[in-house]
Amino acid sequence: MTKMVEVRVPNGFSIRRIQKQDYEGVIKTLSILTTVGAVTEKQFGSIVEYWDTQKLPKGDVYKYNPYVIVEDSTGKVAATGNVIIEQKLIHECGLVGHIEDIAVGSEFQGKKLGALLINKLTEVGLESGCYKIILDCDPKNVAFYEKCGFHTAGVEMQIKANL
Amino acid sequence: MTKMVEVRVPNGFSIRRIQKQDYEGVIKTLSILTTVGAVTEKQFGSIVEYWDTQKLPKGDVYKYNPYVIVEDSTGKVAATGNVIIEQKLIHECGLVGHIEDIAVGSEFQGKKLGALLINKLTEVGLESGCYKIILDCDPKNVAFYEKCGFHTAGVEMQIKANL
To answer: What residue stretches are annotated with the N-acetyltransferase domain (chains A, B) (predicted)?
Structure first.
């Protein structure tokens, strides 16, 4: 049994699904991770709406599970991440959770919010019925994910569009 | 620019989206890859229907793109694979294609059908607007995907459900 270390939500923080009002905080936090580019509040709202309306064939399971950790006193977004649930044929029409776009705000580093986020997204995926949760990471982050209970499983390969 | 080698469809074969009648051939082919387990024809039909009805916010783009290569003279499924398109916020509300569940039937090995399938799924993903296509593979298959135009990009991490 793979042991996943339980991480408690620190005092003064909450963890919940992304809502439309999180626009500024989510865009700012994701910008630490990678290029976000020009995303208007309207576009953000449309994507959140889309994420909130996609369900899987087996009942009340969201396909997209975008989460934020917010600082209660200020309402600031401290961290964000997503787990996308894929419907397969293999493993008896099984489900696999893909963790994506994990980012922790620079002023919120060092509080184990990354581990909390991974813990929560993994829990959401497993409770939705996933037989496994996977993610791709930079080699320098392997130790962090091992502490979260993950193990190395393969190599990520990529091809980019020509722009 | 990453050069993707064009692979032509060999004489006597066709490549197309999965249909309900592909039930036996797809289950048999996927069983080479991994555990498929008990999947009835009815369940298969429901999953295919689900895959055929999921679209992305931006217009006429399928979320799921399950393909088969079939042998024309016998109707046999020679190979199968999927590219799942994920809606992100980053990269200006960008799309990423995830290639999954690539399998070539044992009697159809050695005809470059795997490369053809990867080529087709990548093309479908890029034409749908993906800024990149990614997949996870066993280290022993890295050379194959490099020949298909992919490069190593990270480490796949995994956690399994307790059963």
So the answer is: 13-163
A1 pLDDT more than 50:
no
Alpha carbons A13 and A78: distance in angstroms, whole number: 9
Amino acid, single-letter form, for residue A75: G
Write the pLDDT tens digit of every residue in A42-97.
999 999 999 999 999 887 899 999 999 999 999 999 999 999 999 999 999 999 99
Interface of B with A in 110-149 (CB under 8 A): 122, 126, 130-139, 142, 145-146, 148-149
Q: Which two tokens stand for residue A93?
A: 């029409």
- Six-digit token string for B30: 């996927």
Domain ranges, ordered by start, for chain A: 13-147
**Contact assessment for residue A93 and residue B120, using Cβ atoms and an 8 Å cutoff:** no
Please tell me the distance from the alpha carbon of residue A67 to that of residue B120, in angstroms, as a whole number. 34
Amino acid symbol at B25: G
Alpha-carbon dihedral A135, B83, A101, B35, rounded to 10 degrees: -20
Q: Please, are residues B22 and B93 in contact by the beta-carbon 8 Å criterion?
A: no
Superfamily of domain A13-147: Gcn5-related N-acetyltransferase (GNAT) (3.40.630.30)
* Contacts with B132 from chain A: Cβ below 8 Å: 158-161
Q: Which residues contact A141 (CB under 8 A, 6 or more apart)?
A: none
Token pair for B78:
């020679």
